[in-house]
Q: What sequence folds into this?
């Protein structure tokens, strides 16, 4: 397994684990933070989760792009890159704007919207990981 593919595999597995933890535990827990503490909690969440997620997402994007460029005839690497692009689109066009509002105030409907729309990324990262597992096995 070459280094690019290895890093892509690692990012797929780690990000899939992180997104499931966020989806099942972390985002729903936003409901249990009192209004007075919520903005401080949310800022803490944004700073700390970025330390974990942003380097992995950059590795994921870089390696997915490089794997596609090096193997343009591979449908697997084309799908892999497409999934990554869709994850970035969901992140920056859906979840980031919601977080931007939540960083100013607690809003129960927006928390629900965050949980519900985050299923997009949860599904996509899970599909990416399964695609990568299939590539490893075959």
A:
């Amino acid at each position: 397994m070459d280094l690019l593919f290895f890093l892509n595999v690692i990012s797929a597995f780690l990000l899939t684990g992180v997104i499931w933890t966020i989806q099942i535990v972390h985002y729903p827990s936003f409901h249990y933070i009192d209004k007075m503490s919520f903005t401080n909690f949310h800022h803490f969440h944004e700073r700390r989760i970025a330390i974990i997620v942003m380097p992995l997402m950059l590795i994921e994007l870089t390696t997915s792009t490089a794997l596609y460029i090096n193997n343009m005839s591979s449908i697997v690497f084309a799908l892999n890159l497409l999934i990554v692009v869709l994850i970035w689109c969901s992140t920056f066009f859906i979840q980031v704007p919601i977080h931007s509002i939540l960083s100013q105030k607690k809003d129960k409907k927006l928390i629900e919207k965050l949980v519900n729309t985050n299923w997009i990324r949860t599904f996509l990262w899970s599909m990416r990981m399964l695609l990568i597992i299939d590539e490893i096995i075959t």
The helical segments are 3-29, 35-70, 75-102, 108-137. The chain has a mean pLDDT of 96.
